[in-house]
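Model it.
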Amino acid sequence: VDGGGPSPRRLSVGLERDRLAMLLAVLHQHAGVATGDQDVFVNAVGGVRISEPAADLAALLSITSSLRGKALPKGFVAFGEVGLAGEVRPAPRGQERLKEAAKLGFSVAVVPRANAPKKTDKAFEGLTIHAVDRVDEAIALVRGLD
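Modeled.
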């Protein structure tokens, strides 16, 4: 959201403010997406408190989609921890997360390369899985899904 004054607001419900600040810094430093003049609002659905770093990639991609004014694709899911150097780190139980996403009807997943399945498995049927190593790669990939 365009900032209305000299100090843009950062409001986070459900995601720690320090985590949001780190994600915005990584977004600027490693993907060239500046948010310094933008108000940024993050709200976890249903008032859920997100303490797991595996939600980093999803939050970051949601922020970039908002800045672009384009929604993430229907049936989209993402997970992975984002590091200070812009790397996307694996999440615990990555295969289980993907199987559950497929079962719930998600059709596109962006995940850390280490969490991507090594072989085809019927449990992932209907789910196109994109493996990434870095945040800039994930952002470019999502832009290509438009």
